[in-house]
Amino acid sequence: MRRQTISKIWRRIGLVLVMLCCAVFIVSASNPNTPEGFLIIAHRGASGYAPENTMAAFEEAEKLGSDFIEYDVQFSKDRELVVIHDDTVDRTTEHTGSVDQYTLNELKGMDAGISSSAEEEDKTISSFQEVMDRFAGKMGMLIEIKDSKLFPGIEEKVAEIVRQYEQRHNYTAFKDNGQLQGMAKIKNSSGIIIQSYDFDSTRRMHDLLPGIPVAALVHEDQHPLSDETLDELTSYAAYINYTYDLLDEELVQKIHDRNRKVIAWTIQNDSDMERMKKLGVDGVITDYPG
């Protein structure tokens, strides 16, 4: 009788332990802020080592094992999406003038690495389509929409191209009860995130591509965000991407409390990288990945 009693006690203890383990697993799996790793995002490619927003910079980021490449898209004269940061070609090429006064073919003929003495194989301006063709499904992409108010229809054009790859590479976002919760950290993730300083543009991208996470890119002029603004942004944005020097523990916690993630930009040294990790951000954008 005593043995049976002891046996029952141990079975109950075992059952309780199993239930506790299951509970921990369920909480971990459902909480979007459970540590899934720390995203390293190459700013305009590995722009600290190769000319920004060129195939050379993206390929270098890939070699260095970056999780994502970040790059900028805007319209050319013939309304093709090109990968370049500035609204003019003056700083990064041997030409002058606004990007949208040149056709795609004219832009593709420009050397976008005039400030670099290295002999990179491909330093020309690329189209968005070319970058997608080369890296979609191989690396994560953080795509920034530039000057959306100057280019009506740019969100629709970006969405059109992304849709071509959506099913092919199974880009997905986690959902919990229909609410977008962000995307998982996967080494060399093949996912896509779309960001913009223009919150209306970010919202439009979410409406156009509800299965693709979007990020509200916060400029220092927009800081501090009110709780009401943060509530509005996190109603559709999976990420709140913030300049690193304005981030503190309280702000990171506010974002995490809303079940969203925060990426810090643009990190240039180890001390800032360590501070961001201590704050608990979910990733960093850096010129020097690897």
Describe this structure in words.
There is one protein chain. This protein has helices at residues 2-30, 55-63, 104-108, 128-135, 154-169, 199-208, 227-233, 249-257, 270-279, and strands at 39-43, 68-75, 81-83, 126-127, 140-145, 174-176, 179-182, 192-196, 214-218, 239-243, 261-267, 283-286. The protein has 290 residues and is an alpha/beta fold. The protein folds into two domains: 1-30; 36-286, Alpha-Beta Barrel (TIM Barrel), CATH 3.20.20. The strands form two sheets. It has an eight-stranded parallel barrel, surrounded by five helices. Strands 6-7 form a two-stranded antiparallel sheet. β2 (68-75) and β3 (81-83) form a beta hairpin. It is globular and about 65 Å long. The chain starts with a helix and ends with a strand.
- CATH fold descriptor of the largest domain: TIM Barrel
Counted by DSSP, the helix tally is 9
Biggest sheet: strands, sense, closure? 8 strands, parallel, barrel
The CA-CA distance between the termini, in Å, is 64 Å
How much of the residues is beta strand, in percent? 15-25%
Order of strands, main sheet, comes to 1-2-5-8-9-10-11-12
Helix content: 25-40%
Overall number of domains: 2
pLDDT below 50 for ≥5 consecutive residues: which ranges?
15-35, 172-189
